[in-house]
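Problem: given the chain below (137 residues), write out its structure.
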Amino acid sequence: GSGASWEKTSGRTDSYSLKISRTEPGLTRWQTFQGDGEGYFAEPWSLLKGYRVSCWVKTENVGGRGSTLAVQYHVPNFTQEYPVMRARQLERTQDWTKLELEVGPPPREKAGCLMIMLQQDGSGTTWFDDLEVTPVK
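Solution.
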């Protein structure tokens, strides 16, 4: 969607963050993949581990459904069959707030990556910073 940019003057721990700014309703999403195998720079999946995904979020005059962190296990080149899991949604104006999700182990060995989505559904401005993905036992 429209309004996504790299912010170079405002962040939580430094002066950089990801920013979404919209004047009209609608969805804008930053999306990245954390995966297993060559090219992903991650340790191999374990069927016994889940993952904790966290991000700090700041909002200003956000309307609509709000801003959130979401994740989904993803199988490249196939129709998606796994649900999207979302943290709570932030609306209106909120100072830096930590959003966090914990997901269980990959549902099957063929789940190639964890899709991470930072999104705003509505007007206003949102900053996302300090994204972290850690394995949990």
